[in-house]
Specification:
The protein is of the alpha/beta class. The chain is built from 16 helices and 22 strands.
């Protein structure tokens, strides 16, 4: 008889298990009906009471704890033989049930997915951020190790998918063999490395140096390298390793020194002096290297955060750094980053290729006026006080004549203490189609969007199509804005709200009559 599917095999095993169970019950019935068995049971009960027995659901009696050999039942040879047959039957039945359980796992939908689909799922999972341990263990267990331990099939697929092992995230010294395992199983593919020391004090400078000793022979494969730490000693350790290194495939480099131990900063005088010709994206937090010289040239993304006294850029250095990357498309400047003397006028800095700009700190108004970015499409302003925001608004020229940002389509405000936006603010940025407000006085914007604030029948930001509000939101005010814009044939197409709205499905459903609604629970403010 042949079996075509796993279900056929399981059905046959179930049939065998049923036969074993029927045979077992017949054996027990023969044992309990035997007169010699009954007399022996009564003898032991008279001597010790019935407490030393317990009855199974099928009536099978078992001696619990006899105190001596004399207490043990002495059955006839025929009854003993039947008992042995029952025990053998039960052993066989246990094996059959174990096989059924093992085979049943393959009937779970996830285990029936084609290997090529599982490969895609594994690759996506390996790239997803995991803030905490993937398993119940207090030590984070990397995603590839988790999926490789689920079943024999998953393990085979995981081991033979090199891309799954190219994302090497290190947040703890354990598991100890994780790094060499990734280097082996990635099979020469480009690798992305993240060393995050912020959640444990076990990743000390000597430990990180040992990890780097394993990674450096593969520096020619590095595609991305990111370090996050609050210990300057670790940054210096990485700096010594990278000083003369050559990383021909490296595209992104992040060295972030952060924490609550004061305005600490690190200066690395040499980095990647062997060459990193593919490098296009750099992020430095509280860290400086020789600005405007290799490898910080020909960048498309530059991200500088919290450059303190020794690392802060002077205007001339910043100008030369921009000149060394003529195709810059994204510029992020957070906290303190460039020293602009009070009362001094500086020549404008043209960045004609820039598409994304993020500014925060005390110099937002001066920097936005200093940078000439005619092709800018996305602007993010973060951590502004009300005075700085007011100065920024007042500095904007009228957008009807082109304005400062003629191509701007997306504006994001993060943690901005705002004055009430005026009609002039809207006119200075007339091309906005996407607005994101995170902890930045949402109600003030919504009021300005109402019909009663329209000028000559024209609503503020008539091109607005996507609105993201991660803040306390007045539902009735929001509903009025959404409904009015739909009635005036200027509808919002997508509305993104924070998690509190998800607790009242009725509120969401009323909004969905006019606009597509998405709910977000977490927002990464450190992208």
């Amino acid at each position: 008889m042949g079996f075509n599917t796993i279900r056929d095999i399981i059905a046959e095993l179930n049939r065998q298990a049923a036969e074993h169970q029927v045979h077992r019950l017949l054996l027990i019935k023969r044992i309990t009906a035997d007169p010699t068995y009954q007399r022996e049971i009564k003898r032991i009960q008279r001597a010790h009471g019935s407490d030393i027995f317990h009855s199974a659901p099928d009536g099978w009696r078992v001696v619990l704890e006899p105190s001596s050999d004399a207490d043990c039942p002495h059955f006839s040879p025929s009854v003993s033989a039947l008992m042995n047959e029952v025990h053998m039957n039960e052993a066989s039945l246990s094996c059959i049930r174990a096989k059924i359980e093992a085979l049943s796992t393959f009937l779970v939908p996830a285990f029936r997915l084609p290997p090529e689909v599982l490969v895609l799922i594994f690759k996506a999972g390996g790239r997803m951020p995991h803030d905490g341990p993937v398993t119940e263990s207090s030590v984070p267990r990397p995603f590839p190790l988790v999926v490789a331990s689920v079943s024999r099939q998953w393990r085979e697929i995981a081991i033979n998918t090199p891309d799954l092992w190219t994302n090497i995230v290190i947040k703890h010294p354990r598991p100890y063999g994780w790094v060499p395992l990734c280097l082996q199983r990635s099979c020469g593919q480009p690798i992305d490395i993240t060393i995050d020391c912020r959640s444990t004090n076990l990743l000390t400078a000597p430990v990180v140096d040992e990890i780097m000793a394993m990674l450096m022979p593969h520096v020619h494969r590095w595609r991305r390298f990111a370090l996050m730490t609050s210990d300057p000693a670790i940054v210096y350790t990485i700096g010594r390793r990278l000083a003369d290194a050559q990383a021909p495939q490296l595209r992104h480099l992040q060295l972030s020194l952060s924490g609550s131990s004061g305005n600490q900063e690190v200066v690395l005088h040499d980095i990647l002096q062997g060459g990193a010709e593919a490098l296009s994206s750099v992020r430095f937090d509280s860290l400086a290297t020789p600005w405007g010289s290799p490898p910080l040239v020909n960048l498309t993304t530059l991200d500088l955060r919290w450059l303190w006294l020794r690392t802060r850029l002077q205007y001339d250095q910043f100008r030369d750094m921009l000149a060394a990357s003529p195709r810059l498309r994204a510029l992020i400047l957070r906290g303190t980053y460039i020293h602009l003397h009070s009362g001094r006028t500086y020549p404008p800095l043209a960045i004609p290729t820039l598409r994304y700009l993020e500014l925060s700190g005390d110099n937002v108004c001066r920097m936005s006026s200093l940078l000439a970015t005619p092709a800018l499409e996305e602007l993010t302003l973060a951590n502004l006080d009300e005075t700085e925001f007011r100065e920024f608004v007042d500095s904007l020229p009228d957008g009807r004549d082109g304005g400062r940002y003629p191509a701007l389509r997306a504006l994001s405000l993060l943690n901005a203490s705002m004055c009430t936006p005026t009609r002039g603010f809207m006119l200075a940025l007339p091309t906005i189609s996407h607005l994101t407000v995170i902890n930045s006085a949402t109600a003030k914007f919504l009021e300005l969007f109402r019909k009663e604030h329209a000028e000559d029948g024209l609503l503020s930001w008539p091109r607005l199509r996507k609105l993201t509000l991660v803040d306390d939101v007045d539902y009735f005010l929001l509903y009025g804005v959404v409904r009015e814009r739909a009635a005036l044939h200027l509808p919002l197409e997508r509305l993104v709200l924070n998690a509190p709205f998800i607790h009242d499905a009725s509120l969401v459903s009323t909004l969905e009559k006019f606009v597509e609604v998405d709910i977000v629970k977490d927002v990464d403010l450190d992208h």
